[in-house]
Amino acid sequence: MRNSIIIAVAGHVKHGKTSLVKMLTGVELNRHLEERRRGITITSGHAVLRFPDNKTAFFIDLPGHKEFLHNAIRGIWGIDAAILVIAADEGVMPQTREHLAILQLLGVPRLICVITKVDRMEKDLLALALEETADLLKATPYTAAPIIQTSSITMQGREGLLSAIGHLFDTLPAPDLEQPFVLAIDHILHKEGHGLVVTGSVSSGSLNQEDIIEIQPVGIMDRVRAIQAGGRPQLQVHAGMRTGLNLATLRTKDVTTGCIVSTPGALPKGRFLNVELYVPNGMPSIKSYMSARLFIGTLHTNCKVVLMNSEGLNANERGLAQLRLETAIAIPPNSPFVLISLHRNDLLGGGRVLEISDRKWRKRWNEHGALLQTLATGDLSEIIPALMRFNPLSILTPEKIAILSGYPLRIIKERLSLLCSAKTIRPVGDGYFLSDAFEAIQNSIYETVLRHHAIHSEQEGMARETLRTQFPNLPLVLFDAAINGLTSTGRLECKAGLILQKGFRPRFNRQIEHLMQLILKTAESSWIMPITLHGILQTLTLPEKEVRDAFKILTRQNKLIKIYKSKTGEREEYLTPAALQFIKDKLLDFFKTNKELTIEDAKNIFPIGRRIINILDYLDSVSFTLFDKNKMKRILYPHVKHNSTASNSSNIPQNKNL
């Protein structure tokens, strides 16, 4: 159900299009002196018809003369339906057929056929005109279009035509307001006291007063100061309406006819349009690398047509092509277009845009060709995976897929849900990724970890950041998702910043194993007196690197705990977990009867001299105790409970004395 529609009135020159609009709306559109002198429409005219039930029809009166075909094509962009006008006294003429072909190429969904000037015709001649009109529509999507006889002199057929227009409101689908706003500018003017005003037909989405818009392809942002539609102020406009937008800061020199007003960031931009091209029946062949005039939106510009799969495209044939432009444009994918010959203004063909690209197509790009073939099918269940395969390391959000494909966001979200259920794709972060490609990334990461284990069997695992550097082109969110998936399925595990195969245990050479045992035995004998790296080096007289490696392994295995490291890195102190737990338990016993702990208290409990200070600092760092700098005293951290598992000296091994 619609409350507004845009209807173009097309047909051969002097067949009564402007008079028909006047009969419906009361508006005289031939206002310019030259139009009145020649009795023809030169530029598209606009009129509004309001129905009693608050529905509005916006009419666009198209020029019928071949000389002004460019103005006619520009007026068809963004319309919902068309009225094809055929004069009863002349019947089907060249521009009748041409306008009908253009309506088909631009994908206009509804058509009403009107036979005008019936007051001039006898019944038998009128019957011939009706028969000719029906034959014209047979081979088109408009076979079932109503054919209405009218006369702008006697007003015959007005009510029937109004009824047919009213039926359009009921049969056309409501506009999808979630789509990006798109309006192709067809007129630009400066209004005194207001500034720049741009007009056009809204082809998708909606826009509110004060919204921020983007002018493409120039890429300038601006604010919508005011909106008008049908001569009335509006707070919002949407697809199916003709509108004028008063922009806040831009001037007429900043914008040209053919530019697009859109939701910021919603349109792809490029110099090369990869398209599906169709040559209608009765049209001349299109040769590869020929030049033509491209009409898309309200823009018309020269282009070179490069056919991808053949050297020529004959009448009634369809194929893939690239349209190479002199300058970049921005347009939604799936937009229809028309090609006209450069010199004779003859219709050549048209189709729809599959992809807006920034590079020339090459025959060797087999994958690119496969993507375009998929885009041409219109099957979103195939298009979404194809876009993901073509962007192999990108996580595509629904919004990005909408920009690349041109399909409504609502439909894309529904299809993504179905593809997830079928396990074709999977969610990753804010977007989606191909399931088989994600599994390949996981396998590659897993194999990289296994290779690291094979080469560095003495190391417990591979540092996460080191592993990350092996996949520099992989987005971090994808890397993290792959790691999380591998750990959740039990193939990998994470330990203290290391990634390792589940169940992997390092294998050390005899020298390192013997060195680790000596260090651990020394730490156990030293008990609560921390051992130092420097002290071990002096005792064992071994290379410093081997001793440091042994300490790192023992620390990673949680057999030693580093409780202190000097700022210069020259001094490191270690305790065994058992010794550290003993110290904690003794402190818990102390705090049962005391609220605060001083350095002197600690030295009395643990007679190891000033080294107890480093241990207390470590306990502060792990939130066991809390240091008050003003009082120079410590308290038990609030979350630590006053219970002890080893609160008496009987827990101390006999060879370890305080």
Strand content: 25-35%
- The side-by-side strand order for the widest beta sheet comes to 2-3-1-4-5-6
* Proportion of helical residues: 25-40%
Number of helices: 19
Number of strands: 33
Whole-angstrom Rg: 39 Å
Largest pleated sheet: 6 strands, mixed
The overall pLDDT average reads: 89
**CA-CA gap between termini:** 90 Å
Unreliable sequence segments: 644-658
**SSE class:** alpha+beta
Tell me the overall shape: elongated
What does it look like?
- With 658 residues, the chain is α+β, with helices and mostly antiparallel strands.
- Helices cover 34% and strands 28% of the residues.
- The strands form 9 sheets. Strands 2-3-1-4-5-6 form a 6-stranded mixed beta sheet, sandwiched between helices. A 6-stranded antiparallel β-barrel has the order 7-8-14-11-10-15.
- Helix 11 crosses helix 13.
- The protein is built from 19 helices and 33 strands.
- A hairpin with a 3-residue loop joins strand 7 and strand 8.
